[in-house]
Structure formats: C-alpha cells, structure tokens
From TrEMBL, chain A:
<dbReference type="InterPro" id="IPR014087">
    <property type="entry name" value="Carboxybiuret_hydro_AtzE"/>
</dbReference>
<dbReference type="InterPro" id="IPR000120">
    <property type="entry name" value="Amidase"/>
</dbReference>
<dbReference type="InterPro" id="IPR023631">
    <property type="entry name" value="Amidase_dom"/>
</dbReference>
<dbReference type="GO" id="GO:0003824">
    <property type="term" value="F:catalytic activity"/>
</dbReference>
<dbReference type="InterPro" id="IPR036928">
    <property type="entry name" value="AS_sf"/>
</dbReference>
<dbReference type="Pfam" id="PF01425">
    <property type="entry name" value="Amidase"/>
</dbReference>
<feature type="domain" description="Amidase">
    <location>
        <begin position="29"/>
        <end position="445"/>
    </location>
</feature>
<protein>
    <submittedName>
        <fullName>Amidase</fullName>
    </submittedName>
</protein>
TrEMBL record, chain B:
<dbReference type="Pfam" id="PF13318">
    <property type="entry name" value="AtzG-like"/>
</dbReference>
<dbReference type="InterPro" id="IPR025148">
    <property type="entry name" value="AtzG-like"/>
</dbReference>
<protein>
    <recommendedName>
        <fullName>DUF4089 domain-containing protein</fullName>
    </recommendedName>
</protein>
Amino acid sequence: MSDQADWSLAPAAEIAAAVSAGRVGARAVTEAALARIGRLDPRVRAFTDFLPERALARADALDAARAGGQAPGPLAGVPFAVKNLFDIAGLPTRAGSKINRGREPAARDAALIRRLEAAGAVLLGGLNMGEYAYDFTGENVHDGDTHNPHDLTRMSGGSSGGSGGAVAAGFVPLALGSDTNGSIRVPSAFCGCFGLKPTYGRLSRAGSFPFVGSLDHVGPMARSARDLALAYDAMLGLDPDDPAQADRPAEPAGPSLEAGIGSLRIAVAGGYFARMGEPDAFAAVAAVARALGAERGIEIPEAARARAAAYLITAAEGATLHLERLRARPRDFDPAVRDRLIAGAMIPAPVIERAQRFRRWYRDAVGALFREVDVILAPATPCRAPRGGQKTFVLDGVELPVRANVGLYTQPISFIGLPVVAVPVRLDEGLPLGVQVIAAPWREDVALRVAHHLERAGVARAPVATLD
Amino acid sequence: MAETETDLDAYAEAAAAMLGLAVEPEWRETIVVNLRVLRAAADLVGAFPLPDEAEAAPVFTA
C-alpha cells in the first residue's frame, strides 16, 4: 500500500505495522486521514473539533522519534478521534451540550487519550454526540446530526454517533466512545462497526464528562476485532483518578485473539431478547449463532425489570448531575434531554434505592448463567438505523419513541457491567445490523476472540462506507 | 407512586417547586409523559420481591 490515499482506509494494525517498519511515515498517514475528513465530513458531520495542527505536530514527533531509533509503539501512527465528552487539552469539554462550551479549557487530555498516544496513536479531534450522552439517535440540536455514512438519510445511532460515523466513513480506523446504556453498541450496530464496551470498572473514565456514574463505561470502536484489541490492550491499567475503576490486573486480549472458539460454550439469549425486534434483528443473531455452532438457548432472568431499573437509575443520576444547570439554564438544553432530566429529578429516592438493590440481585442471577456458558448472543438493536429525525417506530405492534427504546437489548447488559463486543452483520446489501457478543465479567478477551472468529468466517464485517 | 394522570401533573408541579426548578407551562406535558414512563418502570421494579438483606452494591470503599 504505497498510495497515500489508501492509508486513510487502512486498519489500525496495518498502519501500525507499516509505520513501525518505516514503510510509511506517520505524517503521510495523518495527512491522508485529514484530507478524507476535510473532503467528506461536511456530509457526515462526525467531527465537532478538528485538530489538524495538533495531529501533524504529533505525527512529526513520532516520525522524528522513530528516525532517532525509538520504538514507535503498538499503535504507531494510527489516527484516532474521541467522542467530545473526553477532555482534549485546550478545549472546553462540551459533551454534546451548548452549556459546557463555557467551561474552562481542559488542562490535559483524558486518561485514555494519553494512553493511546503513549502507544503511538495520533489524535485528530473530537466527535459529535447526543447532548450529555442521554441519547440513542446521534442527533444534536446544537452541532447538527451525525448522518449514517452508509445512508446519509439515516441515523448514526447514539450517543457515540460521531464515533460510529467517523469509523464507518473511513475517517479514522479507531474512535473512543462511551456507553451507559448502549451508546457504543447502538451506533456500532447502525453504522456497521465493531464496538467494545468493556466490563464496568475496567478502563479509566478519568477526564471524561460523566453521565451516570453507576453505569458509565468507555471503550473503543473500530472496523475490526483486531483493532479493538490493539486499542483495548493499550488502554489497560490502573488509574487512581477513576474512583469506580476495579483493582484488576491488566489482562490483554491480543495474545489470545487467534485462539478460535475452541470449546467455548455459546448460547443465544431467548425470552426478552427474542421479542419486540424486527425479524432482521433476530436473523442477524441466527447468522452469528450458525457460524459459531451455537445451538442452545438461554434465558436471562428478569431482563425487562433490569432495563426498567437501568432506566430509573439513569434518569435520577443524570438529573442529579445536571440539577444546577437545569435550575440556572434550562433553555440552553436540548428540550428532549431537559424534559427527561427534569422528570428524572422528581423520582422519589426509595425507587432508586430499590433499583440499585435489584441490580445486585440481577447481577448474581445472571452471573450464575456464566457457570453454564461462556458467551451469550443477543441483538444489539431492534431494527436497522431509522430515518434521521424519526421520532417513533413500531415494535411488536406498539408505537414507541425511538430515542428511549433503541437500547432495549443493550440496557439489561450494561446494567450489570458485562463486557460486550457489538459485531456488525450484513444480511444483504442494505444497512448493517449488530449482534452483542456478551461474556462473563472481566472476559473481554473471550468476546474479542469470538468477534475475531466471526470476522474470519466472513459473518461479521465492517466495510468503509461508499461516500465518494 | 401516584395513581392518576391528574396526580402526576400535580406531583410535577409540587416537585418542581421543591427542587427549585422553573418549569415553563409548555414543558409540563412532556415531563408528565416522562413521569408516566418512569412510574411504570418503578412499578415493575418495585413488584419484584427482594429480601430485606438484599443491599445495593455501592462502589464506595473505605
């Protein structure tokens, strides 16, 4: 791959290998990505903060270090971008809002940006998102909506909509998102990317603007399982700045990525996870199950209640976080977010305590399932990407608001912090669908192994959108 | 939680005052719609029997 334009579409692993071997410079890779973004992002609207000067300076420093004999790192020269709730030094962390633009500029980059750059990656900028991450659509009244690169009339999904859009459009091979109730997995499904929501407490959230501390996760999105694993491994490690981070050793996923599915016990979630969705959502799960030889079903108990409890905790904790802003500047919120938050502030405390107590029960009940199986498969979303601006959809004969219901299959999983890789499935020439590959707590390595196997088998794939 | 639609509207008004939130009249309907969804979720969670010993799993460690 010597043509500069090709580098904008290359996987992260390929870029890192080429930069490390001196076959291409980090500057050339960065310039190719910047050019593609400059040409095509006005149609996708993935970026809100474009940082070409910073990126080129970083790329030049990497090239100079390599010329000086320094090892360039496992992500050498890999361009990446982050959902704009991650601190970027010198910018106010807007988190998709108008209000946060008045914040002091961040003094330093978020922890995960620092770790990716320490591994040789190059930050290109901040990405669009739903206001304060309370969103599944990728729509933003302040910055404009991120459009789905595979069909610009469709939603990107959210709230990490810019992250899904940037990866699917081939602007970057790697992006960071956050996932409280599905905000990595939903845009991964709609935009046809691979997304990793790690175990709750695994990766440092330090320097990211919070939403719901009890449920917030951060993680990578990419066009291959290998690229997810590369980024994930580079971001591992304890960070005292995140009070919810678990005291676990770094357990990298890369070394076992090629191990295949071997004797893994894989089951398909039934009951709640086999209802409500459109037939395509279940066809995607069936295609993945066939490729894995997964014939058994499994019932995740009380999933509907788990979703309800996640919904309540989200509304109340989110409202608590934003209460002062709701008092002082209610008109500066996206009205759809504001009215949900105001209602959330009104939830009586016993309801939330009850939901948290139920969470503990549910964690133990679902944890017991992982004595019988290693992986559970479930749809990521109930449908393909809805039209941009679409307010309602019909699921199982009932008309429901899109914004609150796209995550009905993701919420019961993140509620207890299980690691998930959302894998992109193409059933036909139409829009992609996503399937959740769910593993036991702390077994991101298993979910990534399965995702990699599915990619090898041709069942999961994430082609760059045709935008030219 | 509250039993009727009227109750929810009255509850929203009283709760807004207690929380110090200045709710414009035109926001009220959406807030009540949201409260209705939250109430259904609360009823669903509340109907699940939990023993008194079932404590939440807080992150806080001394």
